[in-house]
Design brief:
By secondary structure, the chain is α/β, with parallel strands linked by helices. It has six helices and six strands; from the N terminus they run βαβαβαβαβααβ. It has helices spanning 13-24, 45-56, 87-108, 139-162, 182-186, 194-206, and strands at 3-8, 28-32, 60-66, 118-123, 166-171, 216-217. α1 packs across α6 (194-206), α2 runs parallel beside α3 (87-108) and α3 runs parallel beside α4. It is globular and about 50 Å long. The mean pLDDT is 97. Bound molecules: NADP nicotinamide-adenine-dinucleotide phosphate.
Length: 226
């Protein structure tokens, strides 16, 4: 059985580009998402456990990239003011951006081999940085990505004890042309192609070593303040 690379959120803009780039580079890719077989829905832990069991039966897992995320949709827009704060919107953002990825850690980190290099990378966002927050707004997205960053840091500490060469990181993909950024690109935000972002992210992932575990890096491999 060969080494496997898993992309969760493989139907998304960045996730699809990552899965294609990995397959083109000769990796054995398992693409997972709500519309795949088996389906993986971050809001349904049983589906995450079943997808992890499916992966475990197929080979040795060396790479997991979580490219899922939620910014807007189903009537929810990023908040401009505290006046817009809505518990249902906040719960959805935390469920998809923080709790879901935490459940991916719960079910996929134990599959990383105890020996040899491996990576679990989750796509966070620079706006999740507390130290870098100068503009305000986007309360639920920012706070849920900040929570994700803390989960990455915490899991990296536990992972190091079990698999010293394994790496758990949060990565910022840059501002990318995807459904997630589309409303803001229309309003003038500069975006770049998902293929470019995927190539950058894979370069960063390839260069990761154990000392990078528990960090928050951008698409150039530069650290972002927590
Ligand atoms: N685009 C940017 O400019 C940008 C900037 C900074 C950070 N990011 C981060 O990069 C990551 C990828 O974003 P993107 O731009 O590629 O967004 P996207 O095209 O909207 O893709 C989002 C992905 O998340 C999946 N997803 C949402 N809810 C889910 C759930 N309950 N269970 C399983 N999957 C779920 C979607 O699956 P479905 O196809 O099933 O809906 C889709 O695959 C996100 O973490 C985002 O926060 C993006």
């Amino acid at each position: 059985m060969g080494d496997l690379a898993v992309v969760v959120g493989a139907t998304g803009g960045v996730g699809a580009a990552l899965a294609t780039a990995l397959a083109t580079a000769g990796h054995n890719v398992v693409a997972l998402g709500r519309a795949t077989t088996p389906p993986l829905d971050l809001l349904d832990e049983a589906s995450i456990a079943a997808a992890a069991a499916h992966v475990a039966a197929q080979g040795t897992l060396r790479l997991v990239i979580d490219a899922t995320g939620f910014l807007h949709g189903d009537g929810f827009e990023p908040e401009r003011s505290w006046r817009d704060l809505d518990p249902a919107h906040m719960a959805r953002a935390f469920a998809v951006n923080a709790i879901g990825p935490a459940l991916l850690m719960k079910h996929f980190l134990p599959l990383l081999p105890r020996q040899g290099p491996s990576v679990f990378a989750t796509l966070s966002a620079r706006v999740g940085s507390i130290g870098d927050n100068r503009l305000g707004g986007w309360y639920a997205y920012r706070a849920s990505k900040a929570a994700l960053n803390q989960l990455v840091r915490t899991a990296a500490i536990e992972l190091r004890r079990r698999a010293p060469e394994a790496v758990c990181v949060a990565l910022h993909p840059g501002t990318v042309a995807t459904p997630l950024s589309a409303p803001f690109a229309r309003a003038g935000l500069a975006v770049r192609p998902a293929e470019e972002a995927a190539a950058d992210l894979l370069r960063v992932i390839t260069a990761l070593g154990p000392a990078d575990s528990g960090t928050f890096l951008d698409h150039k491999g530069l650290p972002i303040p927590w």
